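#dry-run=false #mode=assembly
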Amino acid sequence: MLGRIGKWIDERTHLSDLWRSQMVDYKVPKNLTFPYAFGVMALVAFAIQIISGIFLTMYYQPNVQTAFDSVNYTIMKEVPFMWLIRHVHAAGANFFLAIVYLHMFTGIYYNAYKKPRELTWIVGWLIFFVLLMTALSGYLLPWGQLSYWGMVVTTEIPTSIPGPLGEAISVWMKGGYELGQITLGRFFGLHIWLLPLILLGLVSLHLYLVRAAGISNPEGIEIDKKKEGVPFHPYMTLKEAAYVMGYLAVFFFFVFFYMHHFLPPDNFEPADPFKTPPHIAPEWYLLAFYTVFRSIPNKFLGFVAFSLILLLLLLLPFLDFSPYKSARRRSLFFAMYIVLVISSMALTILGAMPPTPTNAMLGLVFTAGLFSFFLSLPIISIIEWGWYKTRGGDKT
Amino acid sequence: MEASRRDVIGLAIGGLGVVGVAGVLYPIIKTLAPSAASLASAKVEVDISQIPEGNVRVVSWKGKPVFVVRLPANFQWNGTTKENDNRKLLEGHNAYALIAVCTHLGCVPLWKPQGEAEYKYPVFHCPCHGGFYSPWGDNIAGPPPRPLYIPPQSLQGNKLIIGEPGFVKEQT
Amino acid sequence: MIKTAFFTILTLVFFYIIWINNVFAPHETYEMPEQYKKIAEDDRYAKEGKQLFEQNCQACHSVRYDAVYPSAIQANPNLKALQEQYGKVLPRDVYESAFQAELAQLKESFGKVPPDLSTIYIAKGKEYLFNFILEPQKVLPGTSMPAVITGKPEETAKIISYLRSVSEPSSSEKAKRTLMGIGTIAYLVVMGVLIWIWRSRILKRMGLH
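#status=ok
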């Protein structure tokens, strides 16, 4: 019976043809490593955020008077199982960003941003940027002390642009001279409608581009898919399904047993515009940028520096024009990649430390490390072009 | 593919998958269940000496309208009803509470102490589709499929406490 | 192989530091004797704690999520009618406008309205609360909180137990959540392993291994 219904539907939709052409006949390299699964994990994390978020909007009230209570009373105590949905959403946001970072570092390591995948990288960068905006706007919604003061600091950053422009941007973001109902309503709308819809579009485009330009290869060689490729289904789908189960197991460990970091205690105090909490630092996914901003003594230069990092990240496919691909074959690139990883991690950890002169000094050192990665890429590319020519082709 | 369908592991994965989907759906559906506040045993106290004999007052209990009926002493009622369930339960009490929601389609009936239409004695009359109930909420005529619901209630002196099990233990 | 191990360990250490135990970030720690910790963590003292709260703290503080309001508001005859309309836990906007006079008076006495304590246990933790309630000036110099029960650590611990019972789920609920967590994780691990075994079988049949 079920088989006949399935057949009836298939005769009209040709879904099985679609499945065959897109999943089975689609061939991928056999040697893809574990980090390639971060992509599908990010997709799972995105789905989890959308589903849990939809349920949270049923009880959340975007009103400065009642927002805090709707989160901490209605959602956490009154409605059955909503605590779970909130835990999933809060931990999910952190995991989503963590996976996206890992995905980006994987992409950099295997040079997955190079021809013909420049657009895949650029769209990915847009996803990262919109995701940061989504995280920032969502962080304001519980209207606790950290939500409030985190947003105060965020909306102050544009004022480092000299002249009336910076001030104008800041006021424009808040919808007034201080954070209030207008700000909350606006960020609520951004967080639940505009930004997720943009993300949905960008993610679809990103996935399409991955298919159109093909998956990169850890060895840095484009494979002949007809000969060497393995069918995406079941080879890759089941492998990634197993990885996703592992990922979810770690995720749910945090959801059930370790929410301390994802629902920080300070945010269980309602927003008080007259009292700043003692330790105010951005969330971990912004700490590296924050440290760059903080370590540079001039506020405007600090703003320029962290904007430049974002810009350099976007322009990565054009900074690196070497004929070779993948850190596996590029020792110079590998060395600079280590500098990049260590610098980003160090900047993140420094961001949570008190702003002593030593830390500011260290911050400058690692900021220099971060920039040296990006700026060394053209030099490395020129050197590698030299090697390429003397060897007379793509040999290592 | 035919052979793998009988594969034990394949079956186990399929079965576990169903369990997993059910596990995800369970909390999500549960969030739509009544919240802690609406489940809390709300109690409403009514001072029956404030209600004139033969009158009805409407109070709110758990968000629902509730009739508090005060009958005169030695109240006689000559109508005939389809059933006698409510009357048996409330017989001997001159003050009691009934949930004021017509069991047909949820309107609030009106108290007619002088009677209505062919019924020349006190009745509840539902204006929506013409249901008639006795003062105890038993059906006389009209579309309602069952008598009015009776909330748990107890009487302490002059205080009728709706929501506390007493002479009516639980909602009918 | 060395590279894989290096990056794996680096990533794990990094996330351990930023998510679980940031050894580099400053932490304020407060001491609380073990015997009082036990009282504060025990559900059985919550009821006694509530009575102590009513005697010592309710003059100024509310615990709105438990429908406990400052004494002046509790004495206001409007409270009951409002609770009938809005439920025991009044919405904050209704509460603040209905009892503006009482709240303004508290504000005049203390410089600000003494905070609502519904979520204070999660926000501050039992160690901080223990030290602060016993000796407010020592922990937060200049605070307008008076030393109400200085020298009574056991009573303080009981009040903390009450505040905990309002902020946190009950211990039976916590046990339920732990069980759910273990079940979920076990499910995912089993599912992952099964998929992996199934996959290797299919691949063997297809000659891809």
